[in-house]
Amino acid sequence: MRTVATEGLRHLDIGRSALARGDWDQAKGAFERAIADDDSPQAFEGLGLAAWWLDLAPTVFDARERAYRAYRERNDNAGAARVAIWLAWDSAAFRGEHAIASGWLQRARRLLEGVPLAPEHAFLALRSGVFALLDEGNPDEASRLAQETIRVGQSLGLTDYEMTGRALEGFAHVTAGRVPEGLRDLDEVSAAILAGDIKDYLLMGLAGCYLIGACDRIRDYDRAAQWCDRIKALCKKWGLRPLFAVCRTQYASVCMWRGEWDEAERELTAATDELSACRPGMTGEGLVRLGELQRRRGKFDEAIALFDRAVGHPLASLGRAMIAFDRGDFKATTDLADRYLRKLPRQNRTERAAALELLIRAHVENGNAAAARQTLEELNDIANKAQTDPLRASANLAAAAIAAGDGDHTKARRNLEDVIDLFQKSGAPFEVARARLELADVLGELGRADAAADEARRAIEELTPLHADHELARARAVLDRVTMPAAKSGGPSATRARNDRGGLTARELEVLRLISRGLSNQAVAERLFISEHTVHRHVANTLMKLNVPSRSAAVAHAARLGLL
């Protein structure tokens, strides 16, 4: 005759078997029956895990809190610590309560003091490392905790934890700018996954997510795309809904980089909707990426609304800085980019790169060449150590901005040609098109109107299928600007063109023509998609070249020369 306790154990075994094959509903029912027969901590813990996979947040918290109390009543510190680690994860993911998450992790540490080496030590080090890397932006601390995960995994023969620890260590190395070392770790983990060395599909999924996240940091989207496909297949096979939503967010970055913006929007919208319904604490990443997509399309108000929804996410402030730059507000760009960088530890190097590039370009527009050069030193160091084409392109783009600001258009041309080559190699059509527009401006300054017009037209061809409205408007303005002098003078040589313009560059003449219509520096800047400081610099150059004391005198002199 079966006793109540025996029935409880039988239902526990059924629940565990169901978990092992990914049948979350059956597992949930079995654990609920086990609790009805014998409310053991193991039954509550099993119910919490089944509910976690089913996105049933109230059940997750209730079951795990009761499991924690039951383990404590039995003086099972390892069991209580294990559940406390889960509750830390839950508090951050489901509720966005990071202070409470930190409290649960500290409780787990205290409970594991004096406990002989156990899997819980690896679990604690792994989760603490993830919080250190993703929430605190501290790759050095994350690397230390990853090494602790590896040590415990090796000591106890837990290959799953060892390999997941190596994945986290690789992610931390990449974030710190130690890209070759990080990729070596991640390649080893990928081989272990393919070989079947990692059995736990939760840890397998996490290891894959760390790999994709590292690729995203260095814009290695070919590698990321391959792993997105694998992790998505794994998630679909086992019904790993939480991991699938995160993976879709990462996959959308691949699509955005490749210019597949409609697919990126579908993936981000689906992932964000799913996470907001069950894990609102995890929606920030998807919202800021969706905001970045709208920014690229020129829908700035929609982008800002999305950044506002991503409360507290650091990339939201970077997104706002980029919009300020797109709108020509370079002082606000400097403030926002600097604010973002102040919050990010200097050892978090690859996450700093995009903000550094933006800050350099804003410094140039604000006339602060010394600050731009100083910032470029850090960006160059990151790019040189990372050894990836997209980061090299970013550094070259910033260097081109400085060169153009100094009037060294030949150097700027070479930098921008390298930028285009590197971005083309990386499969980034939007970045290629924007670099072409910069090159078109520089070629125009060099008097190479035909080459400038060719770059502008190619940029328009690349931007049109993306429906990048703001950049398309800028591209058409650039095309008008660089073709205007040639059309006026019948396409003379560069020297002849400059002579016909009284020694003025094409841009200086264009600025002067707009001034002659009564436009202010700000209005000229808005019309030409350049900064007010740049307009001021062109006006100063014009006064010097024409040897006149004022704007009105420059207009009168240019009119006498027939330039207007």
Describe the protein in words.
The protein has 564 residues and is mostly helical. Among the domains are: 388-500, Alpha Horseshoe (Serine Threonine Protein Phosphatase 5, Tetratricopeptide repeat), CATH 1.25.40.10; 504-564, Arc Repressor Mutant, subunit A (Orthogonal Bundle), CATH 1.10.10.10. Helix content is 81%, strand content 0%. The chain is built from 30 helices and no strands. The chain has helices at residues 4-20, 24-37, 41-53, 57-73, 77-95, 98-112, 119-134, 139-156, 159-175, 179-195, 201-218, 221-238, 241-258, 261-278, 284-296, 300-309, 314-326, 330-343, 349-365, 369-386, 389-406, 409-425, 429-445, 449-463, 469-489, 494-500, 506-516, 521-528, 532-546, 551-560. Helix 5 (77-95) packs parallel to helix 7 (119-134), helix 10 packs antiparallel against helix 11 and helix 11 runs antiparallel to helix 12. Residues 485-499 have low confidence and may be disordered.
Topology:
Blueprint: H1 4-20, H2 24-37, H3 41-53, H4 57-73, H5 77-95, H6 98-112, H7 119-134, H8 139-156, H9 159-175, H10 179-195, H11 201-218, H12 221-238, H13 241-258, H14 261-278, H15 284-296, H16 300-309, H17 314-326, H18 330-343, H19 349-365, H20 369-386, H21 389-406, H22 409-425, H23 429-445, H24 449-463, H25 469-489, H26 494-500, H27 506-516, H28 521-528, H29 532-546, H30 551-560
Helix pairs in contact: 1-2, 1-3, 2-3, 3-4, 4-5, 5-6, 5-7, 6-7, 7-8, 7-9, 8-9, 9-10, 9-11, 10-11, 11-12, 11-13, 12-13, 13-14, 13-15, 14-15, 15-16, 15-17, 16-17, 17-18, 18-19, 19-20, 19-21, 20-21, 21-22, 22-23, 23-24, 23-25, 24-25, 27-29, 27-30, 28-29, 29-30
